[in-house]
Amino acid sequence: MSLHKSKRFDPRYAVTAAGVAVVYFGAAKFAAFPFIMWAAVRFGQREAASAAFLISGFAVWGAINDRGPFATGSLDERLILLDVFVAATVTTALTLGAVTSERKQAEQEGLPATLEVSDDGVGMPRRASQTA
Predict the structure, then answer these.
(1) Which residues of the chain have pLDDT under 50?
(2) Can you give the pLDDT at residue 119?
(3) 95: which residues sit within 8 A by CB, 6+ positions away?
(4) Which end of the chain offers a freer environment for a tag, N or C, measured as fewer CB atoms within 10 Å?
(5) In this predicted structure, what is the pLDDT of residue 122?
(6) Measured distance CA(82)–CA(58) in Å, rounded
(7) Within a 10 A sphere around the Cβ of 126, how many other Cβ atoms?
(8) pLDDT tens-digit profile of 54-75?
C-alpha cells in the first residue's frame, strides 16, 4: 500500500491558475472575482484564502514590474489601486469562505440552514422538534 496520494487533476489548481492569468494578462482589475468567489463557495475558507493570496501576489508583482492591469500611472498610484484590489479580494474571499465553512459545519451537525426570527429580531435555527 502506497502512502502517496494519486496524482489526479485537482480543479483547485485550475481555478487559481485561471484567476492568476486574468489578473496578470487581463485589462479588467476585478475580473478575478468570479474565480475567487467560486473557490470560496466550492471549497471553503482555506482554499479561498490561498487563491486570494496567489492572485494578490501576482497582482503585486505585476504592479511593480509594469505588467497587467496595474501597469499604468506612477508606482505610488499603482500601489494605491493595488491596495484597494487586495483589500476587496481578501475581504470577499475570507467572508465567503467563512460562510461556506460555517454552513458545511452546520450541515454536519444536523442544524438546518434556515433561521426563525424571534420577536426581538434575533435569528435562531429551527430545531427538528419545532418544525413538526
Answers:
(1) 1-4, 131-132
(2) 58
(3) none
(4) N
(5) 55
(6) 11
(7) 14
(8) 888 888 888 888 887 888 888 8
Domain ranges of the chain: 28-112
Residue 5 grid cell: 496520494
Q: What is the pLDDT of residue 2?
A: 46
Residue indicated by cell numbers 485550475: 14
The residue count for the chain: 132
* CA gap 59, 23 in Å, rounded: 6
For every residue of the chain, DSSP letters joined together read: ---SPP----HHHHHHHHHHHHHHH-S-TTTTHHHHHHHHHHT-HHHHHHHHHHHHHHHHHHHHTT-GGG-SS-HHHHHHHHHHHHHHHHHHHHHHHHHHHHHHHHHHHT--S-EEE-TTS-EEEPPHHHH-
Q: What is the phi/psi pair of residue 129, to 5°?
A: -70, -25
